[in-house]
């Protein structure tokens, strides 16, 4: 390998010729988007689509400014600013790895407790889209109603101190207040998180928070801003020493490279109040009906991740690919997906639910994607409620099988006890970890104690068919272990 090149704007001309770099003049780019929660997924997905347009000579006034509202976001900011906000994307295709340097992002705002810099920048008229990836559990929703949790400490703070909010949503409200006062006009609020109806949820949160301090502003936001629903899809592992070493194999020193699979999908409701890039020219799909795409992806891919990650963690399998190489877990995934999830998923143009399962199985099994079971299992309280509960509810309502989904819940409960079958400890991996551990321990004596976690299971706890199956699986996991329970399920006849 020749001398390694430290990634920066000034060294783009020295990057090996096998690695494409921005062909556009990044100094001439003009911002149009602020993205809050800027991590690996955003850089491999939305930022990539924008970069592609820029490579075509388009979207030169839609550059991205990164932002964060958590103190931990400062570390990412430091890394990216040190390399002029450039990112090396590495595509992990079993047929061969490739890399490219992307440059659609041009700045990263200071991370401040009162979000003053973020509010000021979103209030500027050149910002026409504010997008977010703040995780499924980051929307301050009341699970039973889907409304804003007005009792949460952060929301109460933002309602009392609207000019110095703690949350991303409070900062958006503060910026919109300034824009209304200045006559700047609204911006589009674009969620890129894995939530069914993510735009509708974001609308309820932003409008609901505004209403707590300024009902007139809330009415203005509801009437003037747009909140398109969207479906996002690309498997993007976390970055660690392995990825840092991998980018060096391409001749580049990058403190924050991103690896990703050779697959992306972005389906967006075409509802933008202040204009948008033509992401369709880069492969995104604009539609008036995102929900069937959301349902297929969230229930099969995101739900499928939850089907396998608990078993993988309990058996000490570090990656999603390793779980798919485990014959019993792979068979469980196919059985649950085909018999208990797919029957409740409508087809979308070009692909049926069963064909989509084949696609997801192949993507999960990609050995080059070092996506850890721990990452996928994180925040299971939000992910089980959002990704699996709808399939459980549909199955119960239609008298369809839910045995496998009950097993998945039992595996998750067993995981939350915090110990793998080999005796090693599972470190805390959920914002609600102490609560989950207490419920999992109580399930030793009274299995229904796990299902009595109302924010997760709601009315499902009262369904005898599901409760009985859960109790049976939990007891079998305790007495005979993961492989025996999965083998018992896989051996059952369909129906």
UniProtKB/TrEMBL annotation:
Domain named Mannitol dehydrogenase C-terminal: residues: 289-471
TM stretches of this protein: none
Pfam families from the UniProt entry: Mannitol_dh, Mannitol_dh_C
Keyword Transmembrane helix: no
Gene3D superfamilies given in the database record: N-(1-d-carboxylethyl)-l-norvaline Dehydrogenase, domain 2, NAD(P)-binding Rossmann-like Domain
Key words, A-Z: Oxidoreductase
PANTHER family: MANNITOL DEHYDROGENASE 2-RELATED, MANNITOL DEHYDROGENASE DSF1-RELATED
Protein's name in the database: Mannitol dehydrogenase family protein
Origin species: Roseinatronobacter bogoriensis subsp. barguzinensis
């Amino acid at each position: 390998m020749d001398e390694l090149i430290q990634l920066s704007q000034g060294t783009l001309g020295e990057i090996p010729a096998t690695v494409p770099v921005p062909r556009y003049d990044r100094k001439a780019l003009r911002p149009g988007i602020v993205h809050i929660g800027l991590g690996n997924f955003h850089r491999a997905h939305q930022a990539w689509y924008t970069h592609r347009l820029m490579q075509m000579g388009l979207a030169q006034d839609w550059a991205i400014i990164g932002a964060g509202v958590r103190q931990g976001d400062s570390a990412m900011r430091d890394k990216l600013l040190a390399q002029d906000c450039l990112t090396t994307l590495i595509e992990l295709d079993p047929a061969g790895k490739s890399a490219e340097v992307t440059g659609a992002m041009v700045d990263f705002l200071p991370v401040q407790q009162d979000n003053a810099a973020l509010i000021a920048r979103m209030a500027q008229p050149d910002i026409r889209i504010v997008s977010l990836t703040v995780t499924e559990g980051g929307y301050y929703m009341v699970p039973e109603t889907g409304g804003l949790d007005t009792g949460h400490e952060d929301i109460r703070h933002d309602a009392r101190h609207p000019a110095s909010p703690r949350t991303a949503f409070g900062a958006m409200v503060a910026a919109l207040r300034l824009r209304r006062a200045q006559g700047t006009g609204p911006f589009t609020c674009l969620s890129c998180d894995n939530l069914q109806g993510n735009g509708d949820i974001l609308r309820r949160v932003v409008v609901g928070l505004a209403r707590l301090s300024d009902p007139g502003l809330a009415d203005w936001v509801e009437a003037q801003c747009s909140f398109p629903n969207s479906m996002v899809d690309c498997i993007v592992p976390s970055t660690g020493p392995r990825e840092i070493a991998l980018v060096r194999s391409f001749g580049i020193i990058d403190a924050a490279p991103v690896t990703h699979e050779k697959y992306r999908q972005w389906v967006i409701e075409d509802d933008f109040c202040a204009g948008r890039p033509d992401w369709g020219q880069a492969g995104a799909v604009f539609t008036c009906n995102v929900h069937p795409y959301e349902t297929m992806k969230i229930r099969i891919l995101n739900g499928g991740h939850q089907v396998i990650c608990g078993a993988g963690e309990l058996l000490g399998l570090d990656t999603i690919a390793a779980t798919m190489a485990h014959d019993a877990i792979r068979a469980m995934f196919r059985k649950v997906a085909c018999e208990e999830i797919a029957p409740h998923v409508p087809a979308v143009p070009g692909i049926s639910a069963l064909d989509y399962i084949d696609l997801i199985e192949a993507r999960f099994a990609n050995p080059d994607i070092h996506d850890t079971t721990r990452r996928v299992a994180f925040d299971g309280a939000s992910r089980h409620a959002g990704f699996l509960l709808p399939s459980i509810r549909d199955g119960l309502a239609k008298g369809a099988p839910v045995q496998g989904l009950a097993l998945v819940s039992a595996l998750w409960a067993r995981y939350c006890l915090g110990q793998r079958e080999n005796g090693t400890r599972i470190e805390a991996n959920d914002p609600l970890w102490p609560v989950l551990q207490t419920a999992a321990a109580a399930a030793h004596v009274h299995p229904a104690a796990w299902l009595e976690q109302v924010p997760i299971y709601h009315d499902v706890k009262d369904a005898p068919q599901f409760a009985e199956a859960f109790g049976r699986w939990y007891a079998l996991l305790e007495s005979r272990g993961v492989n025996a329970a999965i083998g018992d399920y896989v051996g059952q006849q369909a129906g």
